[in-house]
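User: Here's a protein and a ligand (pyridoxal-5'-phosphate). What would the complex look like?
Assistant: Let me lay out the input and then the predicted complex.
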Amino acid sequence: MLWSCNPTAIPLNRSITLFGRTRVYCFQSHTMETNDETPKAKALSFDFLSKKPYSPPSWGSHLKPIPSHVFSLGHLPTPIHRWNLPNLPQNTEVWLKRDDLSGMQLSGNKVRKLEFLLAEAVAQGADCIITIGGIQSNHCRATAVAAKYLNLDSYLILRTSKLLVDKDPGLTGNLLVERFVGAHIQLISKEEYAKIGSVALTNVLKEQLLKGGRKPYVIPVGGSNSLGTWGYIEAIREIEQQLQARSNGVKFDDIVVACGSGGTVAGLSLGSWLGALNAKVHAFCVCDDPIYFYDFVQGLIDGLQAGVDARDIVSILNAKGLGYAINTSEELKFVKEIAEATGVVLDPVYSGKAAYGMMKDMAENPKKWEGRKVLFIHTGGLFGLFDKVDQMAPLVGNWHRMDVNESIPRKDGVGKMF
Ligand SMILES: Cc1ncc(COP(=O)(O)O)c(C=O)c1O
């Protein structure tokens, strides 16, 4: 194993007040680089939060530009297991890749993109990260946490309704994590966002921070640019390695995933097309529409000089329903029923809608899916469930007050608990 010093680590002084006393600490981001890629070596080493030189899979080595470095931020590889969904077409198998288990505060698909994006931010000498998204953006939450792990500040522009834009956004779901790690939050109304656009908004904040002597690095919505796309190109290499390690040789025919800003599906479809996996990728979009995403994915893969047509490598279907982050009670009931049937909790905004869309398509077009082995990517987002508790409440019952007879004699267990 090779260890060397990372020349781009940023030493940073921070003051912390604990028990009434303020102290200044000098933090240093992790400074080790390792070249040993095996999952076991990663688990045994202090690989987490380290930065290492990046080399692409052989089948992706013609893509350009190739990132020079990558941070280890996710708990990878994430598990793959059989998902016993009810009412599948004949002989269809669904398997689940648990990218929801890629971390805790960092959970979900965004961490894979951030591994590349933050390596570039650090290489450029950034001292803070700007990004933008919806009020319950999983991407903004993951960015705020990952940035703080690497001693970078984060500035988040969050989109909310006109009614709420001047109010304290509260602590529900992703906001709790963001505010705990000290992200600087600026709210913008949906109308302002639609009028000005995410690029101009992040530019405004960037100019302000530059004037204040900061060195910001801007990550676009969802971390979806060509550099972030490497995150899911790498995920395909990870799946290939997981399949190679299995003795009874499962081969996936299809990959199914939610699409919100396009980067995940761009990486998966390009990797699956170029690599040995060769599975058909189906994206279920939860906002905008398929035509928009075909063009957007095309832009991302053109940015890597891939020379392929997005329409040849992915099929994009609409699963938006009532609108982005808006759920019908039928969708929420589906999420609840899947949890009850399989133990797997889906988020309502992304994987919940994608799985609902997949099951609907399977019911309407069973021949398309019969006998196929499908890998569904659970992209996380569970903090978003907390934003839906009011709508979810009528769907869950199963509690009652325990019936105890006052005459039952006391018997001590472990601890007194009061
Ligand atoms: C939990 C979750 N799943 C899926 C997606 C969609 O991924 P992408 O933005 O790369 O299309 C997002 C973000 O948009 C997300 O937060």
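Summary: The pocket of pyridoxal-5'-phosphate is lined by residues 108-109, 138-139, 222, 224, 258-265, 347, 350, 379-381 (CB under 6 Å).
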